[in-house]
Amino acid sequence: MFHPRRRIGVTISIRRLDDEQKARLNALAEDQRKASAPRAALAQGCADAQPSLQWPGREIEVRLHLNDTQRAALEVLQDATGKAADMLKAACQPDDAVTPPARLAAIANRLDTMLQAVKLVRPALEDFYATLSDEQKAHFEAIGPKRNA
Questions:
Q1: Rg (Cα) of the chain, in Å, rounded?
Q2: Residue ranges per domain, the chain?
Q3: pLDDT tens per residue, the chain (149 residues)?
Q4: What is the spatial distance between Cα 76 and Cα 50, in angstroms, rounded to a whole number?
Q5: Single pTM value for the model
Q6: Residue 146 φ then ψ, to 5°
Q7: Cα–chain-centroid distance for residue 28?
Q8: Residue 87: which of 47, 55, 117 has the closest Cα?
């Protein structure tokens, strides 16, 4: 059975440590937190995804030969995407969430923000996509894979 104070057969009682031992234990925990920070930053990933949120507006206009209605819908999409990127950037600010509950709350906040960003961008993307002809849709869909290759 799992016991919250037992880790692999070792029981630690913080109350029995003297001040020097507590300081060394805290320093070790801080060193481990700093060492794992780069991995944690990679795991979070939302800040790293922001450059991919920018639509290649000029390329879309040139390749799809947009009319005025389509161009206006693309501008709405670009505005929504910019707002979503700002939301994600704000949610991805480093924080001092050291405890597991605080880290979990920070992750929940970031996921909620990501969902809000999707809900903001999706209607604008659907509206823009609905204005395209089948031929334009094929060109539009081909832009993404070529840019990510």
A1: 24
A2: 1-44, 45-148
A3: 444 444 444 445 556 777 887 777 677 777 766 666 544 553 455 555 454 567 888 899 889 999 999 999 999 999 999 999 999 988 887 767 778 888 888 889 999 999 999 999 999 999 999 999 999 999 999 887 555 54
A4: 18
A5: 0.63
A6: -65, -35
A7: 29
A8: 117
